Amino acid sequence: MTSTDLLAQAIRSLEDPKNPTFCCRYYICLLSHVEQEISITWENPIIRVAPYARDNLRLKLSTVADSTSLLDVLSAFIATNRSREDMATLTHRMERCECDRTDRLIDGMHAWDWNLTAYCRDPEGFRTRTCTFEGLIGIVAELFYNALQLHDCRRIRWPRTRRQCLVGSDESAATMLCRWLDIYPILPLLRAIAAAASSFGKPVLVPFLLSAHLPKNLVTILKRGVDSLPADFAGGFDPFGVVYPITLVFITMKELSNIDDGVSSAYFYREYCPLLLDTLSRVAEIDAKMAWALDFNWEQGINLGGIVHAKLVLPFDETKYHRRILDWSKRHRTSILIVQTPYQLARNIMLTLAELPLQCMSAECVTAYPPSICSGCKRVAYCNAECQTRDWNGPLPHKKVCKHIRALGDAAGFPVYADHYTDCGFIMPQLDVDEFQVAVQDGVPLSTVSAFNKNMIEDDRIRKVVNDMLVIRACWIEDVRALTAY
């Protein structure tokens, strides 16, 4: 058997990515011979020593590795859009070998001894099962990752272009990587996702951040990594040892945060926030015991916990969250406000106040469409007199800001609360920061604006969105002006 014959047969068998000809063992045998050359001194991440055959298979590694057609069909195989039902059917079919073993070429690809798991860089408990469909997805994902590494390192081997690694639309390929990870939460797929995010940027980052399953699996794998550490673990830094799954999750999280859309990626983890922060608190405790002085990826991962805590405005509970998470949360909450001038912050607060859901302003009440409007500022409402009294004298007393809201709202033309109920709705003033300042500075002193900011920003409902919506609002105003001018 020659490598040329084998490649031709394998490529033909994958021409229809939804209907591969052979079982998963056939393709795993083929891919175990692909020479994995990467720029750093990792051993072959798939199989160190290929399983030995009872047949004399003469496979020339360089020919296999140089075949761009093989990479094309494998990329299409993993990136082709499939429903979960299609994926389950494919798994069942490819794990049941129905190959024609009378063909010597095909039979030769089955005549191998198998270990339970493939030798790879991943620690015990994270290695894929070799002769299963999980093993095939893992080895294809590893090939995808290494192909991107080869291209980015400017090696002369395949792929010749980065695009060969992501066949089809970026959105579909990114969605399928997340979907495969949800079925098989294995590290090769996580490496592939991190590499795709780094190499392709926004075209794949957007579908990654829209995934309903990726945040769950990131948090789950992170917890598995922490749970797998010995209780008394305090060893030296071993980047590809037992701490590697934790580090890989942090690297992936960092890549997913590299998108400038005006909204913090902290909201990506909102649904899984309790488990994430609990796990990151454990990571911070482990990190404090470690022999290394500082690991950048771990530091960024722990800091992410502080950003999530700050963005979601969670309580400063030292019994629940690690001190490093709380310290970073305090620093982050302060820094997001420093960059805004008093007039800029006041404008954003007024916009946020106008866009809050139609509900009672009392922090202890969530009644929708309250009937009573504050007669002072005319821009907040309550469901009854009891709620209004509670908010007027509460921990964040409305009486401190009522006149300020009225003065700023009237000067800048912000709608009163009653306008929410009109059939035609209300029109938000299209003022940038300079125009807002010009509109209010004659009637509202700077000291009043600063006092208004200080009191209003303490309200969790305001602080949650005032900074994140800044870029979106600026872009929206520019779009409206462009359309008006046109």
Automatic annotation (TrEMBL):
Protein's UniProt name:
MYND-type domain-containing protein
Could you tell me which residue ranges the MYND-type domain spans?
362-402
Q: Name one GO molecular function term.
A: zinc ion binding
Q: Which keywords accompany this UniProt record?
A: Metal-binding, Zinc, Zinc-finger
Source organism per UniProt: Mycena sanguinolenta
Q: Which InterPro entries match?
A: Znf_MYND
Q: Which domain of life is it from?
A: Eukaryota
